Amino acid sequence: MDLRLDKTKKIEIETISKIYKEEFSKPPYNENWTLKKARNKMNFFYKFYDLYTIKIERKIIGFICINQNFMCPGQVAFGEEFAIKQEFQNKGIGTYVLKEIFKIYEKRGYQRFMGIADTKARAMNLYKKLKIFPSKKDILIERSLK
Questions:
Q1: Which residue range(s) make up the domain with 44?
Q2: Burial code of 46-73, b = ≥16 C-beta within 10 A, e = fewer?
Q3: 136 within a domain of the structure (yes/no)
Q4: What does the pLDDT look like over 35-49, one tens digit per residue?
Q5: How many domains, the chain?
Q6: What CATH number is given to the structural domain containing 48?
Q7: Which residues contact 10 (CB under 8 A, 6 or more apart)?
Q8: pLDDT tens for residues 17-31?
Q9: How far apart (Å, rounded) are the C-alpha atoms in residues 77 and 66?
């Protein structure tokens, strides 16, 4: 299997936008994405963050977005979004992708990887396997504005 993690090319934005819309519309997220909103978000990520495309045999099956300036620029690589098409999940692809991301940012001198995860997400087992645990220092806070 030819599995690759490459910097996203502009021409790939449409495909990863569709994946984003599709995967984040499913449980447990149940987010209401239109293709236009997803495309806008991916274009923003492409312009300001590190956006990577996940491919098998040159077919795009997912993406991961890293914010290299979140919190402590140059120290914390923050995983903004990560999605793999459902039919390719639980096949070791997420493990491969995250290990590659860890290598990339460790070489760049980053000290930590962080992200936000839905506690009901299927990826929680992956995170535990890769020793990505809830932060002992930082927590996500929230207030409803409605």
A1: 3-129
A2: beebbbbbbbbeeebbbbbbbbbebeee
A3: no
A4: 999 999 999 999 999
A5: 1
A6: 3.40.630.30
A7: 46
A8: 999 999 999 998 989
A9: 6
